[in-house]
Amino acid sequence: MRINFINHACVTIEENNEMIMFDPWFFGKVFNNSWSLIKETNIDELDLSNLKFILITHEHPDHLHWATLQLIKERTLNDIRILIPRRNNKNVIKQIIKLGFQAAEIPSNKQFKISNNFKVTNFTTGHDSAYIIQTKEKTILNQNDCKLSDSQVREINSNYPVIDFYFMQFSLAGFYANKNEIDKLKQAKLDHINMIERYKSYFNPKITIPFASYVYFCREENSFLNDYIVSLRELDSSYQIVSYGDIILHDNFHSRNELNLNLWDNYLSNLQIDKTSHVDNNSLIETTKLFFNSLGNFCPPKTSFSFYNNKESFVVDYEHKDCYFTSKKGNEVAKVTMYDLQCFFKFPWGADTMNITSCFEIYDKELWKKNLIFKDSLYRR
Description:
The protein starts with a strand and ends with a helix. Strands 1-2-3-6-7-8 form a 6-stranded mixed β-sheet, covered by helices on one side. β10 and β11 (128-134) form a beta hairpin. It has helices at residues 66-75, 91-98, 150-159, 182-203, 254-267, 281-292, 338-346, 350-357, 365-377, and strands spanning 2-7, 10-15, 18-22, 29-30, 35-37, 51-55, 81-85, 102-106, 111-113, 119-125, 128-134, 139-144, 165-169, 207-211, 215-217, 303-307, 313-317, 322-326, 334-336, 361-362. The radius of gyration is 22 Å and the shape is globular. The protein is an alpha/beta fold. It is built from 9 helices and 20 strands. It has 2 domains: 2-267, Ribonuclease Z/Hydroxyacylglutathione hydrolase-like (Metallo-beta-lactamase, Chain A, 4-Layer Sandwich); 281-377, SCP2 sterol-binding domain (Nonspecific Lipid-transfer Protein, Chain A, 2-Layer Sandwich), CATH 3.30.1050.10.
Protein backbone atom coordinates (compact mmCIF):
# COMPACT_ATOMS: atom_id res chain seq x y z
CA MET A 1 0.00 0.00 0.00
CA ARG A 2 1.19 3.51 -0.82
CA ILE A 3 -0.18 6.83 0.48
CA ASN A 4 0.79 10.13 -1.15
CA PHE A 5 0.18 13.66 0.02
CA ILE A 6 -1.00 15.79 -2.91
CA ASN A 7 -2.15 19.15 -1.52
CA HIS A 8 -4.05 20.61 1.45
CA ALA A 9 -6.63 17.89 2.30
CA CYS A 10 -5.93 15.75 -0.76
CA VAL A 11 -4.18 12.42 -0.33
CA THR A 12 -4.19 9.28 -2.43
CA ILE A 13 -4.18 5.70 -1.20
CA GLU A 14 -3.09 3.02 -3.65
CA GLU A 15 -3.37 -0.73 -3.24
CA ASN A 16 -2.89 -3.37 -5.96
CA ASN A 17 -3.08 -0.82 -8.79
CA GLU A 18 -6.27 0.75 -7.48
CA MET A 19 -6.31 4.33 -6.14
CA ILE A 20 -8.56 6.31 -3.81
CA MET A 21 -8.26 10.11 -3.77
CA PHE A 22 -9.60 12.37 -1.02
CA ASP A 23 -10.86 15.94 -1.45
CA PRO A 24 -8.95 17.19 -4.51
CA TRP A 25 -8.41 20.96 -4.70
CA PHE A 26 -5.57 21.75 -7.07
CA PHE A 27 -5.91 25.42 -8.01
CA GLY A 28 -7.88 28.64 -7.56
CA LYS A 29 -9.17 30.44 -4.47
CA VAL A 30 -12.19 29.53 -2.33
CA PHE A 31 -14.54 31.03 0.27
CA ASN A 32 -15.20 34.25 -1.64
CA ASN A 33 -11.59 34.22 -2.82
CA SER A 34 -10.37 34.61 0.77
CA TRP A 35 -8.39 31.35 1.00
CA SER A 36 -5.53 30.38 -1.26
CA LEU A 37 -3.48 27.24 -1.57
CA ILE A 38 0.12 27.84 -0.52
CA LYS A 39 1.15 26.19 -3.77
CA GLU A 40 -1.04 24.94 -6.61
CA THR A 41 -0.89 21.40 -7.98
CA ASN A 42 -0.10 20.74 -11.63
CA ILE A 43 -2.33 17.84 -12.63
CA ASP A 44 0.11 16.92 -15.40
CA GLU A 45 2.60 15.90 -12.70
CA LEU A 46 0.17 13.36 -11.18
CA ASP A 47 -0.20 9.74 -12.24
CA LEU A 48 -3.96 9.18 -12.21
CA SER A 49 -3.91 6.00 -14.26
CA ASN A 50 -5.13 3.89 -11.32
CA LEU A 51 -7.64 6.39 -9.92
CA LYS A 52 -10.94 4.57 -9.29
CA PHE A 53 -12.59 6.43 -6.40
CA ILE A 54 -12.75 10.03 -5.18
CA LEU A 55 -14.02 10.42 -1.63
CA ILE A 56 -15.41 13.79 -0.56
CA THR A 57 -15.56 14.45 3.17
CA HIS A 58 -17.88 17.49 3.07
CA GLU A 59 -19.26 20.30 0.95
CA HIS A 60 -16.79 23.10 1.72
CA PRO A 61 -14.99 24.17 -1.47
CA ASP A 62 -11.51 23.40 -0.11
CA HIS A 63 -12.71 19.76 -0.05
CA LEU A 64 -15.36 19.69 -2.77
CA HIS A 65 -13.77 21.81 -5.50
CA TRP A 66 -15.87 21.63 -8.64
CA ALA A 67 -13.28 23.03 -11.03
CA THR A 68 -10.72 20.44 -9.92
CA LEU A 69 -13.23 17.62 -10.35
CA GLN A 70 -14.01 18.85 -13.83
CA LEU A 71 -10.30 18.98 -14.68
CA ILE A 72 -9.80 15.40 -13.42
CA LYS A 73 -12.71 14.28 -15.58
CA GLU A 74 -11.14 15.97 -18.61
CA ARG A 75 -7.67 14.50 -18.02
CA THR A 76 -8.51 10.85 -17.40
CA LEU A 77 -10.56 8.23 -19.20
CA ASN A 78 -10.92 6.18 -16.02
CA ASP A 79 -14.32 5.04 -14.85
CA ILE A 80 -14.25 7.03 -11.58
CA ARG A 81 -16.88 6.84 -8.86
CA ILE A 82 -17.25 9.72 -6.39
CA LEU A 83 -18.48 8.88 -2.90
CA ILE A 84 -19.98 11.52 -0.59
CA PRO A 85 -21.68 11.42 2.82
CA ARG A 86 -25.44 10.98 2.59
CA ARG A 87 -27.31 14.30 2.38
CA ASN A 88 -30.98 15.26 2.43
CA ASN A 89 -30.40 17.73 -0.39
CA LYS A 90 -29.40 15.91 -3.57
CA ASN A 91 -27.90 19.00 -5.22
CA VAL A 92 -24.31 17.81 -4.75
CA ILE A 93 -24.73 14.29 -6.09
CA LYS A 94 -26.76 15.61 -9.04
CA GLN A 95 -23.99 18.02 -9.95
CA ILE A 96 -21.35 15.27 -9.67
CA ILE A 97 -23.34 13.09 -12.07
CA LYS A 98 -23.78 16.08 -14.37
CA LEU A 99 -19.98 16.32 -14.61
CA GLY A 100 -19.96 12.77 -15.96
CA PHE A 101 -18.90 10.80 -12.87
CA GLN A 102 -20.64 7.88 -11.26
CA ALA A 103 -21.65 8.82 -7.74
CA ALA A 104 -23.03 7.33 -4.56
CA GLU A 105 -23.89 8.53 -1.07
CA ILE A 106 -22.56 6.73 2.00
CA PRO A 107 -24.68 6.52 5.17
CA SER A 108 -22.86 7.30 8.39
CA ASN A 109 -21.50 4.62 10.72
CA LYS A 110 -21.75 1.76 8.22
CA GLN A 111 -18.84 -0.03 6.61
CA PHE A 112 -18.92 -0.60 2.87
CA LYS A 113 -16.64 -2.75 0.76
CA ILE A 114 -16.17 -0.60 -2.32
CA SER A 115 -13.69 -2.95 -4.01
CA ASN A 116 -11.54 -5.98 -3.29
CA ASN A 117 -8.89 -3.60 -1.92
CA PHE A 118 -10.82 -1.07 0.17
CA LYS A 119 -13.47 -0.87 2.85
CA VAL A 120 -14.77 2.58 3.88
CA THR A 121 -16.74 3.89 6.83
CA ASN A 122 -17.78 7.47 7.33
CA PHE A 123 -18.60 9.21 10.60
CA THR A 124 -20.68 12.36 10.16
CA THR A 125 -20.77 15.26 12.62
CA GLY A 126 -22.81 18.27 11.56
CA HIS A 127 -21.74 19.19 8.03
CA ASP A 128 -18.36 17.41 8.32
CA SER A 129 -17.32 13.79 8.24
CA ALA A 130 -14.34 11.56 8.98
CA TYR A 131 -13.47 8.42 7.04
CA ILE A 132 -11.95 5.12 8.03
CA ILE A 133 -10.25 3.35 5.12
CA GLN A 134 -9.22 -0.27 5.55
CA THR A 135 -7.00 -2.30 3.30
CA LYS A 136 -6.08 -5.92 3.96
CA GLU A 137 -3.25 -4.84 6.25
CA LYS A 138 -3.70 -1.19 7.24
CA THR A 139 -6.28 1.16 8.75
CA ILE A 140 -6.28 4.86 7.90
CA LEU A 141 -8.31 7.52 9.72
CA ASN A 142 -8.91 10.75 7.81
CA GLN A 143 -10.48 13.12 10.33
CA ASN A 144 -9.70 16.33 8.38
CA ASP A 145 -11.96 19.14 9.75
CA CYS A 146 -14.40 16.87 11.57
CA LYS A 147 -14.85 17.39 15.31
CA LEU A 148 -15.78 13.87 16.31
CA SER A 149 -17.96 13.46 19.38
CA ASP A 150 -16.88 11.44 22.39
CA SER A 151 -19.28 8.65 21.41
CA GLN A 152 -17.85 8.54 17.90
CA VAL A 153 -14.33 8.38 19.29
CA ARG A 154 -15.36 5.45 21.48
CA GLU A 155 -16.99 3.71 18.53
CA ILE A 156 -13.89 4.14 16.37
CA ASN A 157 -11.65 2.91 19.17
CA SER A 158 -13.86 -0.11 19.69
CA ASN A 159 -14.17 -1.10 16.04
CA TYR A 160 -10.73 0.00 14.85
CA PRO A 161 -8.37 -0.40 17.82
CA VAL A 162 -5.26 -0.01 15.68
CA ILE A 163 -4.95 3.14 13.55
CA ASP A 164 -1.89 2.93 11.35
CA PHE A 165 -2.12 6.38 9.72
CA TYR A 166 -4.02 9.34 11.14
CA PHE A 167 -4.68 12.53 9.14
CA MET A 168 -5.93 15.65 10.93
CA GLN A 169 -6.37 19.35 10.21
CA PHE A 170 -3.69 21.26 12.12
CA SER A 171 -4.47 24.98 11.90
CA LEU A 172 -7.16 27.64 12.06
CA ALA A 173 -10.08 27.64 9.62
CA GLY A 174 -12.72 30.33 10.08
CA PHE A 175 -13.67 33.15 12.40
CA TYR A 176 -12.32 33.13 15.93
CA ALA A 177 -12.20 36.79 16.97
CA ASN A 178 -11.93 40.31 15.60
CA LYS A 179 -8.55 41.51 14.38
CA ASN A 180 -7.98 43.61 17.51
CA GLU A 181 -8.87 40.78 19.93
CA ILE A 182 -5.32 39.51 20.06
CA ASP A 183 -5.63 37.44 23.24
CA LYS A 184 -8.63 35.56 21.84
CA LEU A 185 -6.78 34.85 18.59
CA LYS A 186 -3.77 33.54 20.47
CA GLN A 187 -6.04 31.38 22.60
CA ALA A 188 -7.78 30.01 19.49
CA LYS A 189 -4.42 28.92 18.16
CA LEU A 190 -3.52 27.24 21.45
CA ASP A 191 -6.93 25.57 21.63
CA HIS A 192 -6.45 24.13 18.17
CA ILE A 193 -3.08 22.63 19.05
CA ASN A 194 -4.58 21.15 22.22
CA MET A 195 -7.48 19.70 20.21
CA ILE A 196 -5.11 17.93 17.84
CA GLU A 197 -3.15 16.50 20.75
CA ARG A 198 -6.33 15.37 22.47
CA TYR A 199 -7.64 13.47 19.45
CA LYS A 200 -4.20 12.03 18.85
CA SER A 201 -4.12 10.72 22.40
CA TYR A 202 -7.58 9.18 21.96
CA PHE A 203 -6.67 7.21 18.84
CA ASN A 204 -3.01 6.57 19.62
CA PRO A 205 -2.13 6.11 15.94
CA LYS A 206 1.15 4.66 14.83
CA ILE A 207 1.77 7.66 12.57
CA THR A 208 0.08 11.07 12.57
CA ILE A 209 0.19 13.33 9.53
CA PRO A 210 -0.99 16.95 9.94
CA PHE A 211 -2.76 18.16 6.81
CA ALA A 212 -5.86 20.04 5.55
CA SER A 213 -4.33 23.38 6.58
CA TYR A 214 -1.94 24.06 3.72
CA VAL A 215 -3.61 27.35 2.91
CA TYR A 216 -3.24 31.00 3.77
CA PHE A 217 -5.69 33.86 4.17
CA CYS A 218 -5.22 35.87 1.03
CA ARG A 219 -7.40 38.98 1.21
CA GLU A 220 -6.62 42.29 2.86
CA GLU A 221 -9.46 41.92 5.37
CA ASN A 222 -8.45 38.48 6.68
CA SER A 223 -4.68 38.44 6.14
CA PHE A 224 -4.20 39.21 9.85
CA LEU A 225 -5.07 35.54 10.52
CA ASN A 226 -1.77 34.52 8.92
CA ASP A 227 -0.08 35.74 12.10
CA TYR A 228 -1.97 33.12 14.11
CA ILE A 229 -1.81 30.01 11.93
CA VAL A 230 -0.33 26.97 13.62
CA SER A 231 3.21 26.50 12.41
CA LEU A 232 4.30 22.95 11.71
CA ARG A 233 7.31 23.75 13.91
CA GLU A 234 4.93 24.10 16.85
CA LEU A 235 4.00 20.43 16.60
CA ASP A 236 6.22 17.93 18.35
CA SER A 237 8.58 15.52 16.62
CA SER A 238 6.12 12.61 16.72
CA TYR A 239 4.26 14.03 13.70
CA GLN A 240 5.24 13.14 10.16
CA ILE A 241 5.65 16.38 8.18
CA VAL A 242 4.99 16.00 4.47
CA SER A 243 5.44 18.15 1.38
CA TYR A 244 3.84 18.03 -2.04
CA GLY A 245 3.95 14.59 -3.63
CA ASP A 246 5.59 12.89 -0.66
CA ILE A 247 4.99 9.23 0.03
CA ILE A 248 3.85 8.69 3.61
CA LEU A 249 6.62 6.77 5.32
CA HIS A 250 5.99 3.87 7.67
CA ASP A 251 8.97 4.80 9.85
CA ASN A 252 12.26 6.73 9.89
CA PHE A 253 10.67 10.00 8.78
CA HIS A 254 12.37 12.38 11.22
CA SER A 255 15.26 13.31 8.98
CA ARG A 256 12.82 14.15 6.17
CA ASN A 257 10.77 16.21 8.62
CA GLU A 258 13.49 18.81 8.96
CA LEU A 259 13.88 19.10 5.21
CA ASN A 260 10.14 19.59 4.82
CA LEU A 261 9.95 22.14 7.62
CA ASN A 262 12.51 24.21 5.76
CA LEU A 263 10.48 23.84 2.57
CA TRP A 264 7.34 25.09 4.30
CA ASP A 265 9.22 28.04 5.77
CA ASN A 266 10.22 28.97 2.25
CA TYR A 267 6.73 28.50 0.81
CA LEU A 268 5.24 30.76 3.50
CA SER A 269 7.82 33.52 3.18
CA ASN A 270 6.24 35.32 0.23
CA LEU A 271 2.45 35.25 0.35
CA GLN A 272 0.44 37.34 -2.09
CA ILE A 273 -2.40 39.34 -0.53
CA ASP A 274 -5.25 40.39 -2.83
CA LYS A 275 -7.66 43.29 -2.92
CA THR A 276 -11.35 42.47 -2.64
CA SER A 277 -13.56 42.53 -5.70
CA HIS A 278 -15.62 45.71 -6.15
CA VAL A 279 -19.40 45.67 -5.89
CA ASP A 280 -21.44 48.81 -6.53
CA ASN A 281 -24.45 50.00 -4.53
CA ASN A 282 -27.07 49.11 -7.12
CA SER A 283 -25.74 45.58 -7.52
CA LEU A 284 -25.93 44.93 -3.78
CA ILE A 285 -29.47 46.32 -3.59
CA GLU A 286 -30.60 44.18 -6.52
CA THR A 287 -29.11 41.00 -5.03
CA THR A 288 -30.64 41.66 -1.61
CA LYS A 289 -34.09 42.31 -3.05
CA LEU A 290 -33.92 39.04 -4.98
CA PHE A 291 -33.07 37.31 -1.70
CA PHE A 292 -36.23 38.71 -0.11
CA ASN A 293 -38.26 36.44 -2.40
CA SER A 294 -37.13 33.43 -0.32
CA LEU A 295 -38.19 34.86 3.04
CA GLY A 296 -40.84 33.33 5.25
CA ASN A 297 -42.55 34.73 8.31
CA PHE A 298 -39.62 34.52 10.73
CA CYS A 299 -36.79 36.98 10.09
CA PRO A 300 -34.03 38.71 12.07
CA PRO A 301 -34.56 42.29 13.25
CA LYS A 302 -33.68 45.18 10.96
CA THR A 303 -29.89 45.09 10.55
CA SER A 304 -27.40 47.75 9.49
CA PHE A 305 -23.97 46.94 8.04
CA SER A 306 -20.98 49.23 7.69
CA PHE A 307 -18.31 48.75 5.03
CA TYR A 308 -14.55 48.92 4.74
CA ASN A 309 -14.58 51.13 1.64
CA ASN A 310 -17.91 52.91 1.71
CA LYS A 311 -18.84 55.76 4.04
CA GLU A 312 -22.51 54.84 3.91
CA SER A 313 -24.16 52.02 5.86
CA PHE A 314 -26.52 49.44 4.36
CA VAL A 315 -29.80 48.73 6.12
CA VAL A 316 -31.65 45.44 5.61
CA ASP A 317 -35.24 45.47 6.80
CA TYR A 318 -36.18 41.80 6.57
CA GLU A 319 -39.75 42.23 7.84
CA HIS A 320 -40.71 44.82 5.23
CA LYS A 321 -38.44 43.38 2.52
CA ASP A 322 -36.60 46.63 2.05
CA CYS A 323 -32.95 47.64 1.86
CA TYR A 324 -31.18 50.95 1.36
CA PHE A 325 -27.98 52.89 1.88
CA THR A 326 -27.86 55.64 4.47
CA SER A 327 -25.33 58.21 5.68
CA LYS A 328 -26.66 57.85 9.23
CA LYS A 329 -24.32 55.89 11.46
CA GLY A 330 -24.93 53.93 14.63
CA ASN A 331 -25.90 50.41 15.72
CA GLU A 332 -24.20 48.63 12.83
CA VAL A 333 -23.95 44.89 13.39
CA ALA A 334 -20.53 44.56 11.76
CA LYS A 335 -18.10 45.98 9.24
CA VAL A 336 -18.01 43.85 6.10
CA THR A 337 -17.12 44.17 2.43
CA MET A 338 -19.84 44.81 -0.10
CA TYR A 339 -18.56 41.81 -2.06
CA ASP A 340 -18.98 39.43 0.89
CA LEU A 341 -22.39 40.81 1.78
CA GLN A 342 -23.56 40.33 -1.79
CA CYS A 343 -22.34 36.71 -1.67
CA PHE A 344 -24.07 36.32 1.69
CA PHE A 345 -27.45 37.10 0.14
CA LYS A 346 -26.79 35.59 -3.29
CA PHE A 347 -25.76 32.02 -2.46
CA PRO A 348 -27.62 29.44 -0.35
CA TRP A 349 -24.38 28.71 1.55
CA GLY A 350 -23.58 32.43 1.92
CA ALA A 351 -23.72 32.56 5.72
CA ASP A 352 -21.36 29.62 6.21
CA THR A 353 -18.93 31.07 3.69
CA MET A 354 -19.11 34.55 5.22
CA ASN A 355 -18.20 33.15 8.63
CA ILE A 356 -15.26 31.20 7.27
CA THR A 357 -13.79 34.18 5.40
CA SER A 358 -13.19 36.21 8.60
CA CYS A 359 -13.36 39.26 6.32
CA PHE A 360 -15.39 41.27 8.82
CA GLU A 361 -15.35 42.88 12.27
CA ILE A 362 -18.29 42.20 14.58
CA TYR A 363 -19.81 45.01 16.66
CA ASP A 364 -23.01 43.32 17.87
CA LYS A 365 -22.33 39.62 18.41
CA GLU A 366 -25.91 38.58 19.18
CA LEU A 367 -27.46 40.29 16.15
CA TRP A 368 -24.65 39.04 13.90
CA LYS A 369 -25.28 35.50 15.11
CA LYS A 370 -29.02 35.85 14.45
CA ASN A 371 -28.34 36.94 10.87
CA LEU A 372 -25.98 34.05 10.18
CA ILE A 373 -28.15 31.39 11.79
CA PHE A 374 -31.24 32.66 9.98
CA LYS A 375 -29.56 32.77 6.58
CA ASP A 376 -27.93 29.35 7.02
CA SER A 377 -31.26 27.82 8.10
CA LEU A 378 -32.61 28.52 4.62
CA TYR A 379 -30.08 26.15 3.05
CA ARG A 380 -31.17 22.51 3.26
CA ARG A 381 -28.18 20.19 3.22
